[in-house]
Amino acid sequence: MHNIMNCPSCEANDIKVAFLKGEYRILKCKNCEHLFTDVIVDFDKAKEIYSDKYFFDGGAGYDDYFLEKEMLIKRGEYYSKKMSQFMKTGKVLDVGAAAGFILKGFENTGWKGTGIEPNETMSEYGKNILGLNINPGTIETVELPDRFDLAILIQVAGHIYNPISSLKKIHGLLNPGGHVLIETWNKDSLTAKISGKHWHEFSPPSTLNYFSKKSINELMSRQGFSLLKQGHPKKKIHSQHAKSLIKHKLQGSKSLRWLAGFTVLIPGNMMIPYPAEDLFWAVYKKM
């Protein structure tokens, strides 16, 4: 058995195995209580993980990412309005932009956007179809000449393979007094507690880090950001995405596998509400 990696949030080496998820170990830091997948990812591995299969073949990813286009554009507009409580419009950096739908929502409301995305199909769509400035790569690999007023990580924090160095880089890319907006899944949510190790976000290797409000605040503070506000977003997902994800999770459980067939009862072409308590958003300011 290979050695256990250090905590990617606080770098402590006092780590225990929380449970197994398929072939992967989910680890818990005894120092900061952060949960993370015991796997080291580099850029080539990230490109493999977030290949077209992730966006179009279901399972732990999306059945068809483009089905949520309009919803995600509106989501960008929703978050742009929320950020108006804290700052004026300016330059925004979307980390993990995918096809740029959320970034498009920000641009629709007056922001000048730049995105970063490792999947070339997604980044090319954003550039060629939506007219966005999306750079192929990850926050760890892309070099950008600009400085930004806001960085957004919408459902991306759990996928970043080196949170400390990534946030240090984001800190350097922000103008003085710049902001960071994060939306991520809450490992301390009621849904997560009821689901246990079957919680949908435990989907390694596509998910690597599992945050709570407390753990992400501590990580952000260590990297030079102060918390301004947190809350729970309104969210919907396409029913086809929900059906694919639920079926994948049930098939991966020996005790619940028999329920997978019932997913045919989920309607195939509608937007359905997602439990807001399973997510949270947080706004930080560069110190």
Describe the secondary-structure layout.
Blueprint: E1 15-21, E2 24-29, E3 35-37, H1 43-49, H2 52-56, H3 69-83, E4 91-95, H4 101-108, E5 112-117, H5 120-128, E6 134-136, E7 148-154, H6 163-173, E8 174-185, H7 190-195, E9 209-210, H8 213-222, E10 225-231, E11 236-238, H9 239-251, E12 271-273, E13 279-286
Parallel strand pairs: 4-5, 4-7, 5-6, 7-8
Antiparallel strand pairs: 1-2, 2-3, 3-9, 8-13, 10-13, 11-12
Describe what this molecule looks like in 3D.
This protein has 287 residues and is an alpha/beta fold. The protein is 29% helix and 25% strand. The protein contains nine helices and 13 strands. The protein has helices spanning 43-49, 52-56, 69-83, 101-108, 120-128, 163-173, 190-195, 213-222, 239-251, and strands spanning 15-21, 24-29, 35-37, 91-95, 112-117, 134-136, 148-154, 174-185, 209-210, 225-231, 236-238, 271-273, 279-286. α3 (69-83) crosses α4. The longest helix is centred in the first third of the chain and has 15 residues, at 69-83. It starts with 14 loop residues before the first strand and ends with a strand. The mean pLDDT is 89.
